[in-house]
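[INFO] parsing input record for TTF-type domain-containing protein
[DEBUG] input buffer:
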Amino acid sequence: MKRSNARDISSFFTKKINRENEPQGQASEPPAPESSRIFTPPGPPQISAQSSSPSVNVPEAELDVLTLAHDPGKRKKMSEFHPNERDLVRRTYIQRGPCQPKDYGFPKTYFGEKERRFNVKWFDTWQTWLEYSVDKDAAFCFICYLFRA
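[DEBUG] output buffer:
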């Protein structure tokens, strides 16, 4: 059963015409039909060069994705990034892939009476999510870092 006052999704993205603020005697164009309206997101805020103090809050330091640490032991937590930057950080790390130093001489550690070390073959077995931190001498889950709440 359809509601009689159901609206199309595009009606939520079109600008409503406010006739109360128009001066008297000024003719206005009739609104375009629903099918010809196209939603265009607003562009970046324009700041006038004449204005001494901009009205738009612009962050002082932009995120430089080239300086993001690749070693999981040196990375900042995802929650420490600004919420608007987290998707960019995630995309950057996904493009780089997990940190898997295959030519590194993994140090041996005593575990009970035996010496143990990280096995490079594990990168082949779990290539999409396993990563290793040279700084902390520990293995990490790449997916957990990206999407942990």
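[INFO] The radius of gyration is 27 Å.
[INFO] shutting down worker
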